[in-house]
Amino acid sequence: MVRPPLTPEERLRGEQLGVMLRQARGARSIVEVATAAGMSAETLRKIETGRIATPAFFTIAALADVLDVSLDHLAVRAVPATPAMPT
Amino acid sequence: MVRPPLTPEERLRGEQLGVMLRQARGARSIVEVATAAGMSAETLRKIETGRIATPAFFTIAALADVLDVSLDHLAVRAVPATPAMPT
DNA sequence: TATAGGCCGAATAAAAATACCGGTATAGTT
DNA sequence: AACTATACCGGTATTTTTATTCGGCCTATA
User: Fold this and answer.
1) Could you give phi then psi for residue B15, rounded to 5 degrees?
2) What residues of chain B lie within 8 A of the CB of A78, using their CB?
3) Nearest to B57 among A54, A65, A70 (CB)
4) Which CATH architecture has domain A8-78?
5) Cβ within 8 Å, pair B78-A65
6) How far is B37 from B34, CA to CA, in rounded Å?
7) Least buried of B3, B42, B53, B65, by fewest C-beta within 10 Å?
8) SS3 call for A8
9) How far is A82 from chain B (nearest CA, A)?
């Protein structure tokens, strides 16, 4: 009936996404990239550190545009192992 | 100091994303696609109708995977005109 | 009848996104 | 040495939004 809490797997997934975004930022400062992507530096920092585990689609899209990385690439890399549910 | 309300532009952007996802779903039922993507049917319906304007990145990623569409494609199409800020 | 698909509104807990504060560490300047 | 500026981190507080379930309602079709 309510929104369920994030699972440990979802937390991990968010951390991995953050690591990739941080790596893509390279030597640029958080302030510069966040401003270019139209978000606050605090938000970008929390995404990079995984404290925002399930950020909004358009937030990541804006970041990917600024950082010149592919959204599909990010999604695939962040969700590595599909549970492979048996039929 | 607080999270600002969604702008009309963000609402529109969400609606456009919904339209694209709906089109990609084709003849498949909401229940089938939502289940395959690991979310409730109600949530998918709200995304398609734009009532969830800024869905989570991994939510859209799961949908894009099931529907076999590109996240980059969705992002570009949903945010068509960059404001073209003058230098 | 009844079954399947879809639409809508209310209610709820959890989380996003933001700002502010202090702390740390490094690099450059006076 | 003292000061200044930049950059990053962690916590707190706040409002808005997500994601979910439930119930009802409608339409087509077997």
Assistant:
1) -65, -40
2) 58, 61
3) A54
4) Orthogonal Bundle (1.10)
5) no
6) 5
7) B3
8) helix
9) 11
Give the residue from A17, A38, A41 showing the smallest Cα distance to A29: A41
Which residue bears the tokens 């859209």? B60
A47 vs B43: CA distance, rounded Å: 24
B68 touches strand C (CB under 7 A): no
Give the tens place of pLDDT for each residue, A20-76. 999 999 999 999 999 999 999 999 999 999 999 999 999 999 999 999 999 999 998
**Across residues B57-75, what is the average pLDDT?**
97
pTM, two decimals, is 0.91
Q: Give B8-62 pLDDT, tens digit per residue.
A: 999 999 999 999 999 999 999 999 999 999 999 999 999 999 999 999 999 999 9
Grouping H, G, I as helix, E, B as strand and the rest as coil, residue B28 is coil
Q: Is A65 on the interface with B (CB under 8 A)?
A: yes
Give the Cα separation of A18 and A15 in Å (integer).
Answer: 5
